[in-house]
Amino acid sequence: MEIFKSVYEVVWFILLIALGVAALEGYFYYHFKYHDRSWFIPAALAVFPAAAMAAAAPILGQYTFRLWLEFFLAEIFIASAFRYLVKGRHTVPYLLLAPAFAGLALLLVYPFIFETYLSFHDLKLTTIMMWKNTGRIPFVGIDQYVKVFTTSPLSEITFWALLGRTLLWTFTNVFFHVAGGFALALLLNNNIRFKGAYRTLLVIPWAMPQVVAVLAMRGEFHSQNGFVNIVLAKLTAAFPFLVHLGIGPVQWLSDWPLATCTLINIWLGIPFMMVVILGGLQSISSSYYDAADIDGASYFQKLRYITLPLIRPVLMPAVTLGTVWTFNNINVIYLVTGQSGGTERADILVSALYKAAFTYNRYSYSAAFAIVVFALLFFISVTYLHGFDAAKEER
Q1: pLDDT tens digits for range 33-85
Q2: How far, in Å, CA of 3 to CA of 223, rounded?
Q3: Which of 207, 257, 274, 340 could form an SS bridge with 184, CB 3.0 to 4.6 Å?
Q4: Taking the model in full, what pTM does it have?
Q5: How far apart are CA 388 and CA 169, in angstroms?
Q6: Which helix (H) or strand (E) holds 185?
Q7: Could you report how far apart the first and last alpha carbons of the chain are, in Å?
Q8: 65 versus 213: which is more confidently predicted?
Q9: Per-residue pLDDT reduced to its tens digit, 107-122
Q10: What is the CA radius of gyration of the chain?
């Protein structure tokens, strides 16, 4: 019976999605087809706000005048836009794109708007029942943003210390991702035997599920039976002078949690950069290198004056993506150190944000925190993209 119940739920969900898409397509078809009729706007205002309110009321809890008024005002704007701006143009493309746009609006736009709304209010454990019973949250203006910069999101570290640690974490990881990926790509770009096998083996850490890869590597840093400490113990036994240099087995997960996370993330990120850079290297015409050989250029001269300038337009988008992914990479830190209540010595901004929201239940503070992190990433991405545009113009 459980199997039939599961199948029923899946079928019901598919039918619900299909009905939603059909209703959305019918809504837009009406606006495209009848935008020039004299009764277009009155009919739209009479039907669609009431239909939307009837559909949304079971989710929102009750029929209210405010709900109908919001739909009514929205329909005035939409109908006017179709009547005076769109005018029935590009009907088929818009109808095909409408479900995707609606999905993006529900998955991205609405959560962002709601998060911005929360950041100007005070939602926490002491006010959450007020919100549940009345639908209202105390308005505090920019107070949450002030708290982001002046109070600690955790118990042991401040925002500015977290920001510095996050920038160091991001720079270190991206630097070694690019350096390691570039070195491996240069090796694989040569005519060597079993190149396909090497490429397959090197891409495994990135191709496998990240949870599996991280947990597997976490075991290698175990204090007693981990591969890393076993190797260090063998090295110090073979070369005793290494002990005087401070090299030897350590408690990686407790004494060096951030270093452990960094090493694991570097191992995970190099294959992606390798694949991207290798594709860029293979797109460079061999005629450049043939001409350089005729002129007597050395390997490093060809690398400096041919490979690096021509690979830059390919590398910049990959570095931008790598920076954003690393800046937001809570997975490695969470899985290695157990960030639901683990050590704060490995926290970066996003892991501190997670703790502030789901461990300390500071929801509005976390919303403001998330907006600040988004602004930082937006600034970094724009800076990288500006450099990418400059690189394309140089090319």
Answers
A1: 888 888 888 888 888 887 877 776 666 555 566 677 878 888 888 888 888 88
A2: 45
A3: 274
A4: 0.77
A5: 23
A6: helix 159-188
A7: 64
A8: 213
A9: 888 888 889 988 998 8
A10: 28
Q: What is the pLDDT of residue 165?
A: 92
Helices (DSSP H) in 303-362: which residue ranges? 308-327, 330-337, 349-358
**Quick one: pLDDT at residue 305?**
85
Tokens for 384, please give them: 């990288």
What angle separates helix 308-327 from helix 363-394, to the nearest 10 degrees?
A: 180
Cα–Cα distance measured from residue 71 to residue 332, given in angstroms and rounded to the nearest whole number: 43
Partners of 362 in the β-ladder: 124
For the chain, which residues make up each domain, given as ranges? 2-88, 151-361
Query: In this predicted model, what pLDDT tens digit does every residue of 290-300 receive, in sequence order?
Result: 888 888 888 88
Among 25, 31, 26, 23, residue whose Cα is nearest residue 87: 31
For the domain spanning 151-361, the CATH number is 1.10.3720.10
Q: How far apart are CA 78 and CA 35, in angstroms?
A: 11
Give residues with Cβ within 8 angstroms of 278, minimum separation 6. Answer: 184, 185, 188, 189, 199
Which amino acid does the sequence have at 365?
Answer: Y
